[in-house]
Specification:
- The protein has five helices and 14 strands.
- It is an alpha+beta fold.
- The strands form four sheets. The protein has a six-stranded antiparallel beta sheet with strand order 3-4-5-13-7-10, covered by helices on one side. The chain has a three-stranded antiparallel beta sheet with strand order 11-6-14. The chain has a three-stranded antiparallel beta sheet with strand order 9-8-12, with no helix packed on it.
- Helix 1 packs across helix 3 and helix 2 packs across helix 3.
- InterPro entries: Anti-sigma_ChrR (IPR012807), Anti_sigma_zinc_sf (IPR041916), ChrR-like_cupin_dom (IPR025979), RmlC-like_jellyroll (IPR014710), RmlC_Cupin_sf (IPR011051).
- This is Anti-ECFsigma factor, ChrR.
Amino acid sequence: MTIAHHPTLETLAAFAAGTLDDARALVVATHVSLCSHCRGDVRAFEHVGGVLLDRTPPAAMRDDALERALAAIGTVAPPVHDRAPSLTIGDKSLPAPLAGHPLGPWRWIGRGVQWRSVGVSPVDDTRVLMLKAAPGTRLPHHRHNGIEWTCVLEGAFRHDLGRYGPGDFDEADESVEHKPVIEDGDTCVCLVALQGGIALQSWLGRLIQPLVRI
């Protein structure tokens, strides 16, 4: 597997520091699990963070700090999984970071394109889903109302910024408009963190968007 597209260093630093929300962190973790280069960067950021922490002078704790921590733990509800997650796409295993995240059923959103939900804690209207598109599919021209972070799990697509194959990471925001085209050959499956939905640019896309709920 040759991976050509990676998260920015700022994104990897935030991931290493644990400051990304669950949705973004899951997509980055999936890429990192597939990319030895980014695993090295994350280890380096974690090392730097550890050194800085070691050099930070200790601060005095409040007298009731332990009681407050225990009380907070008691208020956290355990995660609810309606069913065991499916960890395969067809006969292929999914990356390890997806273990424990419940997956919804595949739903059609258009000719050759399906999506399924991935269970994470939603923050700032950011959610995670999988998209599956048949070879040769041309996805609608669209722009973003927020971020769209994508990790390709299998297959490949192209748009104006290049080709994205297995393991590649695409980091888009409100400034990006594109029209991805799925390559011939394999079905393309992607893990996507999506904030605020997408804005389809054609009149037909705007008409059907309320029906597909993406």
